[in-house]
Amino acid sequence: MDYSRFLSVVSAARQPNILRYASNVIHRKPPVIVISGGIPDPSYFPFKTATFTTEDGTTIEIGEALMKRALQYSDTEGIPELLAWLKDLQMNLHNPPTAMYCPDQGQMAMCITTGSQDGLSKVFDMLVNHGDNVLLEDPSYPMAVLSLKALGSNIIKVPTDQHGVIPKALQEILSRWRPGDAKKLNNNLPKFLYVIPNGSNPSGSTMTTDRKKEIYQLARYYDFLIIEDDPYYFFQFEKPNAPTFLSMDVDGRVIRADSFSKILSPGLRLGFLTGPRPLIDRIILHSQCSTMNVCTLAQIATLELFHKWGQKGFLEHADRTMEFYRSRRDAMLAAADKWLKGLAEWYIPKAGIFLWIKIKGISDTHKMLMEDTLKKGVSLIPGRAFDVDSSAPSPWVRCSYSFASPNQMDKAFQILAELIKEIVEKDQGKLTL
Ligand code: 09M
Question: Are 270 and 260 in contact, with CB atoms under 8 Å apart?
Fold first, then answer.
């Protein structure tokens, strides 16, 4: 693949930062005398040791030597042992065809990011010039929409249903172009499709394997990249987990964003990108000039946890967590059935943490949710927040079953139902006047 046409002007201009080399040499074996880097002496770091206790009472000790490392600058792409652990995980879960390729062929590479959001915003920055066309699921995650708007891209909305992007609709959009256009100047072919394949945010949709295959073929035919943002991968309620775009990526055109926020905890701010070497290298150059490295303490603590767990233990933890969210989903569905039947429509999410509800008889949920339900003590997000045009009326509501207890969900939907009835009755009253 020739990646040059995908790079933004900003990304193409990024140069390596020689100072990062100085912090990368401090752990070299045999050791070298480092008088090259602006690196602090760890003997004056205030924290000396730490002990973390896990849910089963096991303790993870960070002794003095490891603590010095945990509090020091570290490699921009992530500490090597954690990267190696994550690479094993990706190989086991996705077995990407690109793992066997040469670097310039788009060989699979990885870097750790400060949550997946940091990775995604750097991916967008790497790819988007003002005026570039990009493809986005409609509705989509507001952070993606806002970042892409701020970069001046022209967002083309791709229709979705409960199974994610509709390939026929995508094909229709793409039929404006011809295969081979990518090689022509000013073709303005969309550079990428951004998708949340499992338990999409906000719609809770999960893409079927057949659709993924069709979409990957379209990406090959027209030559665009696929950004697979998959923070809810481990929360698939139907087993086995579906094959990912990364697992189908014979060309090196998929950039996958993973997140530990939902499966470990968001405060650790740990995510990771997997994609073709030439593109991951541009992200690392960006990080050299921004975050420099992802919090070393968070990486060391997580690595120690992974060493205790092993990959098997991690996957068991992921399954236990998934089961918890499945029961929360079922509790929310029960509350919806009890209170919202006849007032709203929804489908059963097969993954993730979101239930996407369409209210009947209300053309825009914005005022109701931002003022009325909030006054009654319930917080919900109106559908417009997930539209490229955030002022467009939307009858949708995003509900999350990740945080509230089943009793709270029941109460929330009772309040929502009462408000819907009030508003609809008032509107009908106005019509009959
Ligand atoms: N709401 C997310 N989504 C969210 C949300 C959030 C505070 C976060 C998709 O933690 P990271 O950086 O790994 O996750 C970012 C991310 C990326 N992609 C599809 C996501 O859903 C996190 C945080 C308050 C509200 C929040 O509502 O949806």
Answer: yes
